[in-house]
Amino acid sequence: SPQRQTKAELIEMVKRNANYELERTQRLVDRNTKAMEDLANILDLPDLPRRIEGYDISHIQGSNAVASQVVFLDGTPAKQHYRHYKIKNPNITVGHSDDFASLAEVIRRRFKKSQLEPELADNQNSTSNTKHSTLNNQNSTPKTQQSTSNTKHSTLRKDWPDLVIIDGGKGQLSAVVAVLQELNLQEEVPVVSLAKQYEELFLPEEPLPLNTDPEQPGVQLLRRVRDEAHRFAVNFHRKQRSSQLNRSRLDEIPGLGFQRQKQLLAHFNSIDYIRNASVKQLAEVPGIGLRLSKEIYHYFHP
Q1: What are the residue boundaries of the structural domains of the chain, listed by start?
Q2: Cβ–Cβ under 8 Å, residues 33 and 75
Q3: SS3 label, residue 81
Q4: CB atoms within 10 A of CB 181
Q5: Phi-psi region of 255 (alpha: psi -120 to 50; beta: other; left: phi over 0)
Q6: Strand, helix or coil at 194?
Q7: Would you state the CATH architecture of domain 39-238?
């Protein structure tokens, strides 16, 4: 009957869509696996870089300086592990930016806590460390001596990266490597930097960029991580700047302190909604009485 034919066609369509989705997912898995294999080969990593962390700094001439940490697991963004940082360095202020110092601060904050609370992921000793990454093996001692020096267990945690990528060039990378050396983690954390202008890939202790093809799978994966770190940092910077601009306007209202500004913005979400609110609506905000609500209303409606 026509009704049975319609049901059969519907079932067939669902099957086709499921197969398309399965094939698409498999292609994505294959692409990411190929990229990780290529990246491990480029950098001479002992294992596939299944967890890659990307870092970037965003500011406008030093104002509202922030950093981003993005995480890719098996070549795919893992947004539940993303993190923002507000730069705390007192020397970084409006008109005085320092990306090197900002990156150093963020890397120190990221890895110092992990170093203080070590959790052995597995018994990694000299057997698993015989093959050393190119990143940490430039101009170093012979492998036999290295394996002896690495007999201690690794302080790897569950969230420990297989690779860290910095958005920037040789200077940014050197600042990060100095922090890892300070924390005695230069052998634990493989790190590279990828500069935007010519997509140049830099390794620690190497003066020239690595000779790679920008379109090869491993480099494309690094670019995806780098670009995501940049996007995430810029978005957070814009939010911080917008929040500061909002508060600077609210600062002009007599009697409206920082805590009440927070309550207003939490209630209305933006300056525009506060501007359009009536005296009665403003008075409904906890901590904002009738007198203050009139002050706020008259500020926006002189």
Answers
A1: 39-238, 251-300
A2: yes
A3: helix
A4: 12
A5: left
A6: strand
A7: 2-Layer Sandwich (3.30)
- The owner of tokens 């790679």 is 212
Name the amino acid, one letter, at 174.
S
Q: Which amino acid is at 158?
A: K
Task: Report how far residue 56's alpha carbon sits from residue 274's, in angstroms, rounded to the nearest whole number.
Answer: 34
Token pair 């398309």 is found at 20
Topology of domain 251-300, CATH:
DNA polymerase; domain 1 (1.10.150)
Handedness of CA 261, 267, 271, 274 (dihedral sign): negative
Checking if the pLDDT of 156 tops 70, the result is no
How far, in Å, are 238, 267, 282 from residue 274 at the CA level? 20, 9, 8
3-class secondary structure, 226: helix
Tokens of 155: 């302080």
Span 129-138, mean pLDDT?
Answer: 47
Q: For the segment 202-240, what is each residue's pLDDT rounded down to a tens digit?
A: 999 999 999 999 899 999 999 999 999 999 999 887 887
Instruction: Give start and end residues of each alpha helix (H) in the chain.
Output: 2-43, 99-116, 143-149, 170-182, 217-250, 258-268, 271-276, 279-283, 290-300
Structure tokens at 288: 């904002």
